[in-house]
Amino acid sequence: MRIIAGSYRSRSLEAPPGLATRPTSDRLRETLFNVLAPRIQGAAFLDLYAGSGAVGIEALSRGAASVEFVERAPAALKVLRANLARLGLTTGFRIHAASVKTAVPRINPLAKFDLVFLDPPYDAAAEYEATLGLLGGSAAGLLAAGALVIAEHRKKERLEERYGKLTRTRLLEQGDAALSYYAAADD
Fold first, then answer.
1. Domain range holding 175?
2. How far is CA 31 from CA 43, 115, 119, in A?
3. Domain total in the chain
4. I want to staple 46 with a disulfide (CB 3.0 to 4.6 A). Which of 3, 105, 113, 134 is the partner?
5. C-alpha distances out from residue 62 to 66, 67, 173, 186, Å
6. Who contacts 21 (Cβ-Cβ below 8 Å, separation ≥6)?
7. Can you give the CATH number for the domain in which 173 is found?
């Protein structure tokens, strides 16, 4: 894995060993950030199920003001911290070593995220519904005006069009993966 663009372009990243963590491919990350390019500079970014941190680190490399990583797996947390250290990153991020279900309600309620990315294990289908439901419901206050929530999932697994206040605005498919983009409805 490598960082695609920005201040850390072409730097390598490690991935946790084994199959428990499935890093977002370089190609899919490039597609994701091509869409996010006009929004990334100065953005507050929330990386849920962060794994190695590749997506959040890519956001920092491309100019995000801050990234909050949420990851609970000890092996993934170790690699995430090592990737940040290898790049010399010491500020601009925060790591929540907890499950998404536990961490999201504990995030500072004054925090407002412009971009939220979630990539739960593909086999944990219930995590999509729970997390998107949380972001479209009781945790919707964490979303800044005009925020986007992006879920990476299997192409053959169809996510709902709506989760509370979140409505899908775009679906991009690439290989076996897909990215569903959601926007929050204005109150």
1. 26-184
2. 18, 15, 15
3. 1
4. 113
5. 11, 12, 23, 28
6. 15, 51, 52, 73, 75, 76, 121
7. 3.40.50.150
What is the residue type of 126?
A
Structure tokens at 101: 């279900």
pLDDT tens digits along 115-129 = 999 999 877 889 999
Question: pTM for this structure?
Answer: 0.92
Establish if 17 belongs to a structural domain: no
Structure token digits, residue 48: 């849920």
* Token pair of 77 as six digits: 């947390």
Q: Which residue type sits at 80?
A: L
Token reading at 40: 């990334």
**Other C-beta atoms lying within 10 Å of the C-beta of residue 79:** 23
Q: Residue 3 falls within a domain, yes or no?
A: no
- pLDDT tens track for 35-81: 999 999 999 999 999 999 999 999 999 999 999 999 999 999 999 99
Mean pLDDT of 170-180: 93
Say what the pLDDT of residue 5 is. Answer: 81
User: Phi/psi of residue 36, each to 5°?
Assistant: -80, -10
Look-up of token digits 């509370």: 164
